[in-house]
């Protein structure tokens, strides 16, 4: 079987969303799945079609060890070689030799006949187009947002097919068209009349992207597709790419392991007109180095409520936030700290949240050692051989699986061994690992919201939160309004914070 060398993280991600999860059964199903990607000349003659095809390969090659890449029509063979190379860069062991698909995703204008489910995906400017019955084609604009987003819907429907008996609402999507300008389902028309990207120069206001992980990768992928994009963008992340990250970082290949994430995204944007300012540190470190805490637009792609609240506390003028969790993903918009719900309003303190030390102690199978682990965190101590032996015994794991992490700082050990999927234990809802198609969609939508807001493309403002669930059929109502809390517990109700925001802007 040609499972990727980051398969442990893929297994961990699946364990959050599949009922009656069993690792051996999960491996078997993947090994028996031959996923086909079909495209025609029309698809590779369109910028939107090529973007959809690229993102489809990037997502499916991260999960499935067997892919079938089928080109239909003239002048498609050379492009297939490129697509195969892209898949092999993600998983060098991937098997591309199969010819009997278990499900197919099809991009372009050509209908195909298969004895298995076929999902037709495409876009038209800002509109996602999907059908389980007939081709939907690809538009001729240079807009990458719906084109990338629909690939996430295609990958999600493949996943629902392969694991349909382990998902609570696994029906496939049927025909739908969804506009990213208002997130409303529409009847498909001849063309999407929304403002097109690529026809004129776009000048971004000063923007900071905080977090260059899975969501940030999706954001950068989308922004890199816009040729006439200018302005200053700060790229903020302190970490390096790890092997386990490849499971859902759509920009990362095998050769990117141990690169700083800032370097990874700078490479993706090397042909961009943007003025890029990378920072290998966190948001607090960036602000302290910068000295000026005024930032017009902040894109939030971090992985914890704590980080989001600290970002809001620094009082950027405008915030767009993206998130993923096991049952949905979404975007929230925070453009007026005084009047609207702030980012902190979405993440109120919750009862029953475990401390970092208890979370780690339970993950290690050593809840009675929580006090010692708390001390280790405070001192930034390393995990020595004695701890490795205790953890291996408690988790009934072979000692040799943990030996490579001897002398790693305790947080690094937790990140690589537990969050990295090497140690699969009980699902921890405080540290969920998303599927690749969930993270990519959240990142693409974050980039889309930036452009929509910058260019004032919405004539009517939306509710401040949009939620989507890729593990069930698309819903009719995706937007909702979150109001400021009636209590004074949030910082946006605090007079000192409100006065400081007024004085800044």
TrEMBL record:
Domain THIF-type NAD/FAD binding fold: 199-350
Pfam families listed in its UniProt record: Prok-E2_C, ThiF
InterPro entries, per database record: Prok-E2_C, ThiF_NAD_FAD-bd, Ubiquitin-activating_enz
Gene3D superfamilies documented for this protein: NAD(P)-binding Rossmann-like Domain
The organism's place on the tree of life at top rank: Bacteria
Protein name per UniProt: THIF-type NAD/FAD binding fold domain-containing protein
Organism annotation: Flavobacterium granuli
Species classification: Bacteria, Pseudomonadati, Bacteroidota, Flavobacteriia, Flavobacteriales
């Amino acid at each position: 079987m040609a499972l990727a060398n980051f398969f442990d993280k893929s297994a961990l991600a699946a364990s959050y969303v599949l009922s009656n999860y069993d690792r051996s059964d999960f491996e078997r199903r993947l090994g028996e799945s031959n996923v086909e990607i079909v495209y025609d000349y029309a698809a590779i003659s369109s910028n939107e079609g090529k973007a959809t095809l690229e993102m489809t390969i990037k997502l499916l090659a991260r999960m499935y060890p067997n892919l079938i890449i089928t080109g239909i029509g003239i002048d498609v063979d050379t492009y297939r070689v490129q697509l195969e190379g892209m898949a092999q860069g993600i998983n060098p062991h991937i098997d591309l030799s199969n010819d009997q698909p278990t499900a197919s995703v099809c991009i372009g204008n050509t209908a195909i006949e298969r004895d298995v489910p076929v999902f037709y995906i495409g876009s038209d400017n800002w509109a996602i187009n999907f059908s389980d019955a007939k081709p939907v084609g690809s538009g001729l604009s240079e807009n990458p947002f719906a084109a990338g987003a629909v690939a996430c819907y295609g990958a999600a429907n493949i996943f629902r097919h392969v694991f349909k008996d382990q998902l609570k609402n696994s029906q496939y999507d049927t025909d739908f068209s969804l506009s990213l300008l208002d997130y409303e389902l529409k009847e498909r028309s001849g063309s999407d009349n929304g403002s097109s990207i690529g026809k004129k120069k776009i000048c971004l206001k000063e923007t900071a992207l905080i977090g260059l992980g899975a969501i940030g990768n999706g954001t950068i992928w989308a922004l890199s597709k816009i040729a006439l994009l200018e302005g200053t963008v700060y790229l903020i992340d302190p970490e390096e790419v790890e092997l386990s990250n490849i499971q859902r970082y759509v920009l990362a290949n095998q050769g990117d392991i141990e690169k700083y994430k800032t370097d990874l995204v700078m490479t993706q944007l090397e042909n961009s007109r943007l003025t890029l300012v990378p920072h290998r540190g966190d948001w607090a470190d960036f602000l302290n180095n910068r000295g000026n805490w005024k930032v017009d637009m902040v894109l939030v792609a971090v992985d914890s409520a704590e980080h989001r609240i600290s970002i809001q506390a620094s009082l950027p003028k405008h915030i767009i936030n993206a998130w993923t969790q096991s049952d949905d993903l979404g975007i929230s918009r925070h453009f007026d700290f005084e009047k609207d719900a702030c980012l902190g309003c979405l993440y109120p303190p919750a009862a029953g949240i475990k401390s970092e030390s208890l979370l780690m102690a339970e993950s290690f199978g050593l809840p009675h050692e929580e006090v010692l682990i708390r001390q280790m965190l405070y001192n930034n101590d390393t995990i020595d051989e004695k701890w490795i032996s205790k953890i291996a015994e408690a988790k009934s794991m072979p000692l040799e699986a943990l030996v490579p992490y001897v002398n790693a700082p305790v947080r690094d050990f937790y990140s690589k061994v537990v969050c990295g999927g090497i140690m699969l234990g009980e699902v921890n809802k405080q540290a969920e690992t998303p599927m690749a198609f969930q993270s990519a969609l959240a990142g693409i939508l974050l980039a889309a919201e930036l452009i929509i807001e910058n260019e004032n493309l919405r004539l009517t403002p939306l509710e401040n939160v949009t939620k989507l669930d890729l593990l069930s059929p698309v819903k009719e109502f995706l937007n909702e309004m979150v109001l400021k809390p009636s209590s004074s517990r949030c910082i946006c109700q605090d007079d000192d914070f409100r006065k400081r925001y007024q004085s800044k802007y």
